[in-house]
Design a protein that fits this description.
The complex is a heterodimer of chains A (about 60) and B (about 260). Chain A is globular. In chain A, the strands form 2 sheets. A 5-stranded mixed beta sheet of chain A has the order 2-1-7-4-5, with no helix packed on it. A two-stranded antiparallel sheet of chain A has the order 3-6. The termini of chain A are far apart. Chain A has one domain: Beta-grasp domain (Ubiquitin-like (UB roll), Roll). Chain A contains 1 helix and 7 strands; from the N terminus they run βββαββββ. Chain B is α/β, with parallel strands linked by helices. Chain B has one domain: TIM Barrel, CATH 3.20.20.70. In chain B, helix 1 runs parallel beside helix 9, helix 3 packs across helix 4 and helix 7 packs parallel to helix 9. The longest helix of chain B is centred in the C-terminal third of the chain and has 21 residues. The radius of gyration of chain B is 20 Å and the shape is globular. At the A-B interface, strand 7 of A face strand 4, helix 2 and helix 3 of B. Strand 7 of chain A pairs antiparallel with strand 4 of chain B.
Chain lengths: ~60, ~260
C-alpha cells in the first residue's frame, strides 16, 4: 500500500497501517510533531489505507 | 521591578526574539541563550522527512525558561490562521499565538479584517492572542476590546530594515492602549528599538536585524541594551520639544 506523507509517496506492507508505526519507521518517534489529515489534527493511533494523504508538521525558525 | 506583563505572565526582559533566517540552528540557539528573550517566535512547516533534525524544537527545549510563541505566518485568511494557531498550540503547549495574516506577498502587510476576525475567535477560546498589525490606532483599540493580550504594530515591512517608519502612529497607539504594545518588524538597528521604547512601547520583537547581522549574538545583546535604555528613558520622563532655546546655564548679564 502507498501512503502520501508531505506529498511524497511511501510504501508499506498490508492493507492498513497505524500512523504511529509510520512515525517509528521514519525515525520521527521523539520529534515534536503534529499529524494532519485533510488539514485536521489527528491521533497517531488512527489507521491509514492505500492512497491516504497526511501531513507531518513541526516548528521551524520564524519571526 | 519594571516587569513586562502579558496576560498572566510576567517577564523581566522586554526583548522578544524571532528564530528565522539564522545561518545555523546552533547560532540561533546561542543567540537565544545570550539574551534570554521574553518570548521566542517560531513558525510552522512540514517536517523534512529526509532530515528530521531540522526540527528546532529539540534544540530549543533544552534552554530553560523559554516560552515559544508560534506564529501563523503563511496564512492568507482568518480560517487558515485559525488552523495554524491550533496546530501551534498543540506543538508548543502554550496559549501564546502571534497572528500574522499577510495575503500581500510583496510587502507582507497584515490584513486588518482577517486579523480582527480570527483574533475574536481565538480570544474566546482562551488563547493569548498577539496580532501583528499595521500601526493603526482604531484597529489596535478594537483588538484590545475583544481581549487580545497585546498588539504588535509594525515599524516597517517585515525584514526590510527600513526602521521606525510608523513613529507617529506608534506614539498614538502607546498613548491610548492599556495592553502592551510590542513594536515588531522592519527595525534595522538598536537605536530604532530604543526610539520605539522611548515612545512607550512595552517591548520589541526583532528577528532579521539580529539573524542577518554579521554577529547575531552581539547584535542581540545590543538590541537588548537598547530596549532597556529606551524603557528607562521613557520611565524617567522625556522632556517636551519646544521651538525656542532653553538656556542650560544661568544668565550672567549682571556680571557684564
Amino acid at each position: 500500500m502507498t501512503v502520501y506523507i508531505n506529498d511524497k509517496s511511501y510504501s508499506f506492507s498490508g492493507k492498513f497501517i497505524k500512523i504511529h508505526k509510520i512515525i517509528d519507521k521514519l525515525n520521527l518517534k521523539n520529534k515534536n510533531i503534529v499529524i494532519l489529515k485533510g488539514g485536521k489534527i489527528i491521533d497517531d493511533r488512527i489507521s491509514l489505507k492505500d492512497g491516504d494523504k497526511i501531513d507531518i508538521v513541526s516548528f521551524i525558525g520564524g519571526g | 521591578m519594571d516587569l513586562l506583563k502579558i496576560g498572566d505572565y510576567e517577564f523581566n526582559t522586554r526583548l522578544l526574539l524571532g528564530t528565522g533566517k539564522y545561518s545555523s540552528i546552533d547560532i540561533m540557539i546561542e543567540t537565544v541563550k545570550a539574551v534570554k528573550p521574553a518570548l521566542i517566535t517560531v513558525a510552522l512547516k512540514r517536517v523534512n522527512i529526509d532530515n528530521p533534525d531540522e526540527d528546532i524544537f529539540i534544540a530549543l527545549q533544552n534552554i530553560e525558561d523559554i516560552i515559544l510563541m508560534p506564529n501563523t505566518a503563511g496564512a492568507k485568511t482568518a480560517e487558515e490562521a485559525y488552523k495554524l494557531a491550533h496546530i501551534g498550540k498543540e506543538l508548543s503547549g502554550e496559549r501564546f499565538v502571534k497572528i500574522e495574516i499577510h495575503p500581500d506577498t510583496e510587502y507582507l502587510l497584515p490584513d486588518a479584517i482577517e486579523t480582527f476576525n480570527v483574533c475574536k475567535k481565538l480570544t474566546r477560546e482562551g488563547f493569548y492572542v498577539m496580532p501583528y498589525i499595521n500601526a493603526d490606532l482604531v484597529l489596535a483599540r478594537r483588538l484590545e476590546e475583544i481581549g487580545c493580550v497585546s498588539v504588535m504594530p509594525l515599524a516597517a515591512p517585515i525584514g526590510s530594515g527600513r526602521g521606525l517608519l510608523t513613529y507617529e502612529f506608534i506614539q498614538m497607539i502607546t498613548d491610548k492602549l492599556n495592553i502592551p504594545v510590542i513594536v515588531d518588524a522592519g527595525l534595522k538597528s538598536p537605536s530604532e528599538a530604543a526610539a520605539a521604547m522611548e515612545l512607550g512601547a512595552a517591548a520589541i520583537l526583532v528577528n532579521t536585524a539580529v539573524a542577518l547581522s554579521e554577529n547575531p549574538i552581539a547584535m542581540a545583546k545590543a538590541f537588548d541594551m537598547a530596549v532597556t535604555a529606551g524603557r528607562k528613558a521613557y520611565k524617567a520622563g522625556i522632556i517636551d520639544t519646544v521651538s525656542h532655546a532653553r538656556a542650560s546655564s544661568p544668565n550672567l548679564d549682571f556680571l557684564l
